[in-house]
What does this fold into?
Amino acid sequence: MCDHWWENETQWHRDWKNCFPEEWQEVVHFAEDGEKHIADVKTPSGLVIEFQHSAISQEERISRENFYNKMCWVIDGTRLKSDLIKFNKAPTLRNLKYPTLMYERVPINFFPSLQKWYLSEKTVFFDFGDKLFCILPTSHHASGMLMFSLSQDKFAEIVSIYGDRSIDFEQIIRSEEDFNFLKIS
It folds into this structure.
């Protein structure tokens, strides 16, 4: 059976996959019913990274998260121009530097893609071109979210270094020598 999750790849998608070793790319899995799924990137420790440019339904997102279990998402934050415009107008988000964790009240409708992805139980990175903006899945509280940003190169470096073991992005950031925590009320 073919992979009903498959979609045509954009250059953005291919560029991201090419940040990782070829043997980690396009890893084939089979569901119990024989249906074929292809992970964009799968590290030796089993972490799947899905790069998502086009819109998908909540049901589709949940289905992939349940199937792969150990995964994170990288979402093309430049696909919807309103996402990029709103992100660029938020100085605390836009100027967030690695390795700072920030806890802030951010309305879930702050930018359209955030509203669609904030309920994910997996780590979600929004790629805004020059940096990735991340919301940690365990941080969703009525009072705010735990967030950080990092460069695309730093993301690829972390995944490559930790590729053979479990990756806890929050723990990695907190272990950095110049770690900073910022709480905005």
Summary: Helices lie at 11-17, 58-68, 81-88, 91-94, 112-117, 152-161, 169-174. Strands lie at 25-30, 36-42, 48-52, 71-76, 100-104, 123-127, 132-135, 145-150, 180-184. Residues 11-184 form one domain.
